[in-house]
């Protein structure tokens, strides 16, 4: 799409939106003010700050919870994008069968829904994984819930991801899934901030 067409499309969308805005003279505000307020990053976004930066990680993966996990190491880069609204996550490391693993994610706080939201893609699936969650009162433990399609079981299964902020330089991510009505731990990732 060339630049002129893109600009015209953006302008048309803005005019369409602006045409539906109702001015409330008594309150001296517009519907657009609600959008502006909802778009501002706030205190809930700041709670993600300890996850920002450059990391090394040790990953433990359980195919069978009764056996020893597979252990892999890699790196992660996280940075704020869209004016501090989303924390972008890029991960690289060894994959299964000698392949290189690459992953990309976004995490933020949705002011409209009042909860954290996350999306994830990587080179080991063709799915876009999404989840939503909360944080504890101390602002240190994030719990996300998701529902993914399991290619082995051929059905959707529920999952839970927990990120525990230990301190500014360390955090642990735990991933669980439900199998036959029982929750099992499938992954644990210990992240350590890279020395500057």
Give your account of this protein's structure:
The chain is α+β, with helices and mostly antiparallel strands. It has 2 domains: 3-39, no CATH class; 43-193, Lipocalin (Beta Barrel). 15% of the residues lie in helices and 54% in strands. It contains 3 helices and 12 strands; from the N terminus they run αββααββββββββββ. It has helices at 3-19, 31-39, 43-46, and strands spanning 23-24, 29-30, 53-61, 70-81, 86-94, 100-110, 115-122, 129-135, 141-150, 155-167, 170-179, 182-193. The strands form 2 sheets. The protein has a 10-stranded antiparallel β-barrel with strand order 3-4-5-6-7-8-9-10-11-12. Strands 1-2 form a two-stranded antiparallel sheet. The protein is globular, with a radius of gyration of 20 Å. It starts with a helix and ends with a strand. The relative contact order is 0.13. The model is unreliable at 19-26 (pLDDT under 50).
Order of helices and strands: HEEHHEEEEEEEEEE
Shape: globular
CATH class of the largest domain: Mainly Beta
Arithmetic mean pLDDT? 87
What can be said about the biggest beta sheet? 10 strands, antiparallel, barrel
Domain count: the total is 2
Proportion of residues in helical segments: 10-25%
Distance separating the two termini: 41 Å
Task: Tell me the strand order in the biggest sheet.
Answer: 3-4-5-6-7-8-9-10-11-12
At CATH level 3, the topology of the largest domain is: Lipocalin
If helices are DSSP runs of H or I spanning 4 or more residues, what is the number of helices?
Answer: 3
Low-confidence parts lasting 5 or more residues at pLDDT below 50? 19-26
**CATH superfamily grouping of the largest domain:** Calycin beta-barrel core domain
In the CATH classification, which architecture of the largest domain applies?
Beta Barrel
Radius of gyration, whole Å? 20 Å
Structural class: alpha+beta
């Amino acid at each position: 799409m060339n630049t002129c067409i893109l600009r015209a499309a953006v302008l048309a969308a803005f005019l369409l939106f602006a045409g539906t805005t109702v001015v409330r003279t008594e309150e001296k505000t517009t519907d657009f003010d609600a959008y502006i307020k909802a778009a501002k990053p706030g205190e809930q976004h700041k709670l993600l700050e300890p996850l920002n930066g450059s990391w090394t990680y040790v990953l433990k993966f359980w195919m069978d919870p009764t056996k020893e996990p597979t252990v892999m190491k890699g790196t992660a880069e996280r940075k704020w994008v869209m004016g501090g609204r989303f924390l972008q996550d890029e991960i690289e490391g060894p994959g299964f069968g000698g392949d290189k693993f690459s992953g990309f994610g976004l995490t933020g706080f949705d002011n409209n829904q009042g909860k954290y939201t996350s999306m994830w893609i990587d080179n080991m699936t063709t799915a876009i994984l999404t989840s939503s969650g909360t944080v504890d009162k101390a602002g240190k433990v994030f719990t996300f819930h998701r529902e993914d399609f399991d290619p082995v079981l051929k059905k959707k299964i529920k999952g839970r991801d927990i990120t525990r902020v230990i301190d500014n330089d360390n955090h642990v991510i735990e991933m669980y899934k439900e199998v036959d009505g029982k929750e099992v731990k499938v992954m644990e990732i210990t992240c350590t901030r890279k020395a500057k």
